[in-house]
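Hey team,

Sharing the Aminopeptidase N run so nobody has to redo it. Sequence (891 residues) first:
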Amino acid sequence: MHMRNDNLSAPQAIYRKDYVAPGFWVDTVEMGLDLGLEQTYVATRMTLRRNPDSTEKDIVLFGDGLKTLQLRLNGVNLKKSQYSIQGETMRIPDAPDDVVLEIETLIQPVKNTALSGLYASAGNLITQCEAEGFRRITWFPDRPDVMAKYTVLLRADKKAFPVLLSNGNLIEEGDLGDGRHYAKWEDPFFKPSYLFAIVAGKLVCQEETFRLQDGRDALLQVWVEPGNLDKTDHAMQSLKKSIRWDEERFGLELDLDRFMIVATGDFNMGAMENKGLNIFNTKYVLANPSIATDIDYAGIESVVGHEYFHNWTGNRVTCRDWFQLSLKEGLTVFRDQEFSADLVGTATGRAVKRIEDVRVLRQVQFSEDAGPMAHPVRPDSFVEINNFYTVTIYEKGSEVVRMYYTLLGHDGFRKGMDLYFARHDGQAVECDDFRAAMADAGGRDLTQFERWYSQAGTPRVHASAVYNADEKTYALTLTQSCPATPGQAEKLPFHIPVTVGLLGADGRDLPLHTDGAQAGQTSVVLELTEASQTFVFRDVAEEPVPSLLRNFSAPVVLHFDYSDAQLAHLLAHDSDPFNRWEAGQRLATRRLVKLTQAVQAGEALALDEMFLEALRNTLNDTTLDPAFRELVLTLPSELVIAEEFDEVDPQAIHTARQYARAAISDALRGDLLTAYENNLTPGAYSPDAEPAAKRALKNLALSYLADWPQQATFELALTQFDEAENMTDRLAALHALVNFKGDPKLKKAADKALAQFYKKFAKEALVVDKWFMLQAVAETTDVARVRELMQHPAFTLNNPNRARSLTFSFCNANPSQFHAPDGSGYALWAELVIALNKINPQVAARLARSMDRWKKYSPALQQKMKAALEKVAGTKKLSKDVAEVVTKALA
Ligand code: ARG
Ligand code: ZN
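Structure output:
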């Protein structure tokens, strides 16, 4: 029997409301794979059992791009008349209640450029099955609510594939005599097919046994390509910290005797939590001081944590269907954020992490939530699930989980988690089940809280206050609304926790007397549940400055009519470090908006002394964590400023922000030099928070100083570049050199540094990515220069990291050049999306998202953007992935 199934049908949405339980459960899966790069033969034997509770009567299997050799049901070959195939779906009607299905398929890993299913990477074989990659290996009820026990037998040539890995425990291995060998793996836990994984090839590992809290020893391994063993230590340390943290904070133990991490240079996303065999993008594993920056080190720690934490939140309790994706992703992001914050430990350290996370949320998620791809945390429909691994599902999902934490408190949240596992361990459940566990454990009615899952869009909260000096009352009125999003014109009020404090004239917190506040309390969580509510504070001795939405207690945009003086007061004194930073950002945003308008009107630009003084005071306040000072001194990004405008003018925003940077550099020159010199970190490199914070502030100072076009600052950057003993300092110096504003003669020296950097690191793929990215976002890099860089021998669209380093960085992070008035950036974008569509639909669809907000630009730009979108939309053989993104953008 020979048959192929190709999906040629038009993109069609599927709906959450159409969920039907599977007609059959799968109890066991036994797989045998004869591995080869050109061709891999897959034999699958599964036992199925009718689900009497389902309205679905057929056996329904999914397959994608498979060559099917054999289909046997209870030992008998299936005749063509006994099943039907439509698109990816095979239906077998009239099956008995207990079935053994035997299926043989052939797949071609080297031809799999989509990197979903089984694919080749540097001569090795790797799988990625989430969300729907398993169906590219064999026919299967490939949906997350079908959980089965897997046994996997791998056979392969010994020389080409000396290492053979799969989920769970290695139960047997041996020689097959003919230059081939085998390994048999058994995963003792029931799991959905998206957690299936195999890895085969030439890999080496760093390993260690680690004593778990319950006394068991677990074998931990980090597998990499030969030559990279000097870069695995940080990942291993991070893994051990993750295991310990989950034991201590949530009482959750590693449930396997063996836990493996594998790094591959070809990966669509960050990493994948396959049971016992996590597969990672090299970007989130490989590090040593000479190739990785402080940010890379922090990223590795959090992603290693994230994937490890999925073992409970995702694997032991999984999702009923993909609409529930945030059940595992939002919760696991919350857990990794808390992990990173706990590791730093200090209060400002936690706040620094919080600020960094909120910055991402605002810059990327708020924008998504205001565009054509806006969707609820629990979507109601999608065309391609891979398009829904979004900042809304992940980061907003995490904010939603954080609100339970804020509402229930530390211990209440932990009780909710315990109840969630007590109820649902081993099950595939819904977001509502998590909410119910939180409500029941906390004894709270969280019915209205459900709207955070069902309604898209970023809520607006308008605050206003009246102080009554005679009665000593302070009445705070909070009013909420939420803009319309696709398919959701009207929104109902959300249940919003708003953490509030009141500052006196001396900058100290006033004691709070209001409903729900205990004696001596200086922060209170107000619960806004109606469209508008007034909260009254009593015994307020003086008119306070309100500190609202402390620690960013809800993912909303908060308006309050602060005066500059009030903001400066908050920036100088708020006991909530998040709101100190926030006050500085508000001051800066106001000015950047005005400056942008001045640029557009051709007026003279100026920055006021009051603002500069506030920045100077923060910069020079050595009692503050350098990481915190670095965040306050960093101006809102061009993308964040853009959100303040109905019609975005990218060049004007850029000019305004650059002007502000130069003015800050000019006014604070001496202070910046001092900060530079006081934050040197001599001695051996450590990625720990303290030295990393110093480097961050020092390098921010350097980047400001480089806006001062003097030979002296150029020399400072050049010396740092030449003498750097770690990538953080080297890369920061190179950034400063490449973006230097001074004498054009210095450009030669900068070019030389760029060339040196490339030569030194040409063999380190992750560093070459940095080299491309740095140039992609440089302000002088225009479309023509990007095209030139695309001709560089090291550039390729076939590798996701490399494609992203140049093209995504340019389209998403260099707005003033990407939005060139002649539309050349959009033409480049269309070419790239079309080219990537043929290679890797998931990556193509990500790039397609760069055009999401096209309706926010001037009519002239809009027209060019629309033409580019239409060009892509009209392309033949468009993947579902890209089609969904451009169709929604054009709708
Ligand atoms: N579950 C993975 C994580 O968040 C992400 C995998 C997504 N992969 C995909 N192809 N959509 O850790
Ligand atoms: Zn995840």
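Residues 391-424 form the longest helix (34 residues).

Ping me if you want the raw files.
A.
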